[in-house]
Amino acid sequence: MILHWRSPLIIAHRGASAHAPENTLSAFKLAIQKKADVIELDTKLTADEQVVVIHDQTVDRTTDGSGRVNNLPLAALRELDAGAHFGENFQNEPIPTLEEVFEIYAGKILLNIELTNYQTPFDTLAEKVSQLIARFDLENHLLVSSFHPIPLRRFHKLSATIPIGFLAKSGSAGFLSRSWLGRAIVHYHVIHPEKSNVSPNLVNKAHMSGQQVHPFTVNEPAEMVKLFAMGVDGIITDDPALARQIIGTSKSDLFDQFN
Ligand code: G3P
Ligand code: MG
Is position 13 annotated as part of the catalytic site? Predict the structure, then answer.
């Protein structure tokens, strides 16, 4: 399967997280306003096995609470303020559930759902996400990614028609994921490499294998220009407005402006 989405894609990392608190409804709304093509968001399970949208394993950095997400029930997580850490204008933003995101955004924008059960890869996150996607009939509106092959393999077994993105860490930590072995272990359609590992060779090899390339997390204009020039199929960025501006600028102007 080849991903037939518009290219290059602007993928808003945790929403428009440069200008709103990451992984909140405000960040997702802003991503749409700033003309992102896709919203990337991080999912994991609560203690009572509900799917919530939060990046870290604990709530400590992004909320006014403390503790591991998978030790807290949904009701307790929903009491927390996930916006105030970013600025007082965002006070009382809740941690969203994936169901809530689907209710609001189904069909309005493409989604990149990252399975972030990195410490509990055998939990039921893949199953729960697959069920929610089916309930909302969103099979053609999203891709599912992870750094971990196990949740991706589990997800692919359940939802074989949904495109898979394999995330690769930078440098030697991501070497296997970027290699032929990564292709053998995970049946993926898009590679999401750390930006410093993207080269014309990596892009060509992926394209020859029918795979696309979406590097993360690309926030500097010069990096965006360089990666688009290499032929990447999208970038994952905290600042979709900036990426839209770069894409809208003609190639010669770009090189004058940013080199
Ligand atoms: O999906 C790209 C990026 O989100 C992967 O890293 O840690 O920000 O989820 P992280
Ligand atoms: Mg992520």
Answer: yes
- Residue 42 CA: which ligand 1 atom is closest? 9
Single out the residue of 183, 222, 177 nearest to residue 197, CA to CA: 177
Q: Which residues does ligand 1 sit against, CB inside 6 Å?
A: 13, 40, 42, 55, 114, 145, 167, 192, 216-217, 236
How many Å lie between the centroid of ligand 2 and the Cα of residue 147?
A: 9
Rounded CA separation 13/115 (Å) = 14
d(CA 238, CA 39): 10
pTM equals 0.94
Tell me if residue 214 is catalytic. no
Q: Write down the domain spans for the chain.
A: 2-258
- Determine whether domain 2-258 maps to CATH 3.90.800.10: no
Q: Which two tokens stand for residue 146?
A: 């992870």
Distance 213 CA to ligand 1 centre (A): 14
Q: How far apart are CA 225 and CA 229, in angstroms?
A: 6
Q: How far apart are CA 164 and CA 47, in angstroms?
A: 26
- pLDDT tens digits along 164-201: 999 999 999 998 988 888 888 999 999 999 999 999 99
